[in-house]
Design brief:
This protein has helices spanning about 15-20, 40-60, 120-135, 180-185; strands spanning about 25-30, 35, 65-70, 70-75, 85, 90, 100, 100-105, 110-115, 135-140, 145-155, 155-165, 170, 180. The protein is an alpha+beta fold.
């Protein structure tokens, strides 16, 4: 997501505006600026599928719930409602924040899978917004490098751990979760 994909930097948009745009093009909002989302690659979708299947299996019968894009996360729904993302995957444990069209507030765990066109956006802009909103864990998955960076919120900052394709990644938020990254990157 680069500046050329911005709908208009002259107008301040909110979630209410997004609801009028239809489904032909998907957008995310950052402080009222709308950015068009590009279609994901096959590699991206394979990693998404593998993570999704593994997380769904782990969460079955537990109190937390997994959501897969497209699903709106309204990070500041009660304070302007002008920052809305559609994370590749997210897990929520506070079911009081569910809304018919997404989630109101910070999910417990967010996973973004990098694409060449969105990598900088995911690593800089979303990183900062997730941190400010209080997302407890933010995972950035690099299919090309076959790595996962896990950022855990501690004292208003993220602490980073890096995992490679032969590692097992664990979650502090989801106790006992262990994902073998060989299984995540198997089809690449």
């Amino acid at each position: 997501m680069n500046g050329s994909l911005a709908l208009s930097k002259e107008k301040h948009y909110t979630y209410s505006d997004m609801l009028t745009w239809g489904d032909a093009v998907r957008y995310e909002l950052v402080d009222g600026i709308a950015y068009a989302m590009t279609s994901p690659s096959t590699t991206h979708q394979r990693v998404l599928r593998n993570f999704g299947f593994m997380l769904f299996s782990y969460l079955k019968g537990k109190s937390c719930e997994l959501f897969i894009a497209p699903s709106d996360v309204r990070l500041n729904a009660h304070q302007g409602d002008d920052t809305v993302f559609q994370p590749d995957l997210y897990v929520v444990c506070d079911k009081t924040k569910f809304h018919e069209r997404g989630y109101l507030g910070a999910p417990d765990l967010v996973i973004e899978i990098l694409s060449p066109s969105t990598a900088r956006f995911d690593m800089v802009v979303k990183f900062q917004k997730y941190l400010e909103a209080g997302v407890l864990e933010y995972w950035i998955v690099d299919p090309e490098g076959k790595t996962v960076d896990v950022f855990v919120l501690e004292h208003d900052r993220y602490i980073r751990s890096e995992y490679g394709k032969n590692d097992t990644v664990s979650s502090r938020v989801l106790n006992e979760l262990e994902l073998n990254l060989t299984e995540v990157f198997i089809d690449l």
